[in-house]
């Protein structure tokens, strides 16, 4: 192996031959020098010497020498990668050997031709030549030649992936080499056996053979072969995942190649070192030597060019392409693989041409151009079949499977991976068999058949352990972690990802280390531990930057964006997703670019900027269509559906979710199909079609159970609970939310657990069980704070507002909603900010501060318009209408409710449409237009029945009862209130049950059955106390006071009114406080204490003016008029009644206008001005007839009869 020493000896021999004129000896010396330079890898210099040898052989007529020269020239041109020229020289050698009868030379020529055709990937032709070599060697008794023929046959069958046949030939070679004492041949046989067992993935056996090869090389002092043995050992340890040990062997190979001057060997060693550092994930070192100046692969390339080694040059280009692909520089990778392909075509190496197509396919796959990837992999497959390369054929099937999986065609992917598996089993390649199981696992994971996926990943893991492949063992653990993640078993996923991380550290796989951290980050994210998730993603990012893994860096930024999104820090999320997008564009990763646009869309959605969200989701959709990513296309449709749902365009939302569903069915994605059903359920829920929503959520649940997705099962239970809540079936809703909670706890899903607690809080709130509602909401808030979810924390404060409003604790409600507003501002959530303003408006409404309520609702309306949230805009109009109604501006209230109704119809919001009809009914009732009020309440009732809203149906019955009460049809009013009570009992609505009892009490009061009225008001009071409804408790006290007042029990009446007043003050209900003052004034008036009565009425008037309650102000004027009339101060009484009349006309309140006319008639009667009295009583009668108030009409006739 000391070629330099050999050259010096051959040069001296040449000099002597020239001196003595020995032409034959001179020729032989040239031939020997050619062989020595060949050994050094200097093939051009070798050729020049062999050509001189040929020339002299021709001159002296040495036919045998001429033949040998042709053979040596053929070997040199083969080493240069010029296989066709090599064949032409070997054919001339063969021809001469036959002419001179040189059987040994003829056999050698056949062997060389076999090697040349092997290099051209024509393995069957190679075998036919090696068999002729073998036959001749046996004929002439050339045992060494026979051994080499067996060795060459073994190599050919190895290339055909018939590894067991290859081994049998190499064992025959070994046996012969031992028999004849051919140590070099023995070493070569051990080396070939090592390579064959490496191909079978029996790396430990391969290593034992390579160590014997190394031992022999050292024994015989063959430095070049020693280097090759080190290189083979390095490759075997690389396959085992022991990259550091691999590097140490490749460095010894490099050192020897430099010592003996073997340029080709030096190049190969640089290439192997580059690959080993690549496997370590230290991609920067993979393209640079340990001096960090010249890349290993570039040094390999430089040497290959220097010595004219076309095959080595191509191999270097391929390695550079793979390294740049790992760095995320896919365009540069493609340029290198194109050069590799060009060289393979130039030299006619079909097998290498196929590998180049495969590498190009992988690079285009990384770019997200899956169709182009498939076209390259199909060319690779075609060539592998042509040349009979079974292993290459399997690899092409695997690559095609991965490409079709990325396209979302999972069934086609599976068929390709099954073909790969079949081939791996046929050729006995355990490692590739394991890889095929892993790919099948990933494909079944995409189909949501997670249990099948796990079984395949477990087989992959078992094989990786059997063959001792640590790197693939780590991959199998990672894939198992992903499958358990998909099943919602986050704790199990977490344990597998930790094993992946442990192995990556053991074998020094930096990229695997990074992926392990990323996977753990995702697992902690799913567990709701967002801060821990961020710490792992930051470690992944740090590693990706260190090793210059641009693609990994982008993924880490994307994952960090998702984690900050979950924390409610949407602006930070956007900054990370923008970095991910930038990197995807830089490296040309179209699929990654699409995913980044999707994530940005989700972040802007959470900020309430739905139109910006839509623009990003449309870009994602466009890219997914361009690259043929069906799964990505489906996700984009789903995200667009969610955005249009938030905008209140529910029909458009449904059309997008239906497209998502169609794609999920096409590609066989069961989990995606379930997700689409869930989204469709939510959209129909928003439309108020709760029964249709239920049917979709039940399909989602069924699929989640089929595929074993525990987390998805929990979400489906939660959605079913929400639908039953909206239907008013609160007990059923609670049972579903409890199942959601149970599943979330089972899989450790903190975010799902938080949502379940919030939903349970809402359901118990709807049942009127405010104490239990608070208990669940406190757990909801606690989890939000634990995991650092600012948006979720804000949502918790929003829940509390509803709670404290229901309890009548309005000041506390406001403080919680100010927290919600503050958080919404912090995280930049425009839509959330709008909702918070709306909630604050509701709180101030409950406090009786209607002007402040209006200001908050107007801000909510403005924000809803800015973000173009039609449904939110409609709700804001409804809230503004309610506030104007309380201010006594009924016409303005109606105009707002009509806008709400118009929007609800536009967006198809049936529940909102029903609510708007109900509000219009209440406003027309306040105007005294009771018939119009009834028509609106009947439309509300009809819609509530259509959509199955039991609670809404009950409210409509209650409102109809109130309208018929105002018409004086108390019996009809009672029948409607009884239906309201029945519905409230059916759905377990305690708060609604209490309201129905209160309304029944008022109806029996008007019928004069005060004892029955009191019994109903006492039930109302009892329920209000049970559920903690302070405002309801206050109203019940007021109604009881009114009933005892009519029974003449004024002391009892006053005590109840005082309790009403006390409660109103406690909860900050100014409007209720005013009403209580008015009721106390009436009670003291009936007691004859008119001065005290006046002071209470004046306090009522003052409060009504403060809060802007025009109707309440009018009633206070009327009560003051009655009090001054009782004091016989009729002129003052008339002045107050006129103000009452003026206010009633201003706000359009026909009922109060009628009462004011009646009171003025009575006052003028007392003054003896009967004509004016009659005039006012006639107006009283006219209005009673107009509005259909039979009781009022009867009262008018009673007054007018005095003048007949």
UniProtKB/TrEMBL annotation:
The keyword Ribonucleoprotein does not apply. Pfam families: TPR_12, TPR_7. GO terms for cellular component: cell cortex. It comes from the Eukaryota. Its main location: cytoplasm. Keywords: Cytoplasm, Repeat, TPR repeat. The keyword Chaperone does not apply. SUPFAM superfamilies: TPR-like (SSF48452). InterPro entries: GPSM, TPR-like_helical_dom_sf, TPR_rpt. It is found in: Cytoplasm. TPR repeats lie at residues 27-60, 67-100, 107-140, 187-220, 227-260, 267-300, 314-347, 354-387, 394-427, 434-467, 474-507, 514-547, 554-587, 594-627, 634-667, 674-707, 714-747, 754-787, 874-907, 954-987, 994-1027, 1034-1067, 1074-1107, 1154-1187. GO terms for biological process: establishment of mitotic spindle orientation. One of its GO terms (molecular function) is GDP-dissociation inhibitor activity. This is Tetratricopeptide repeat protein 28. The lineage of its organism: Eukaryota, Metazoa, Cnidaria, Anthozoa, Hexacorallia.
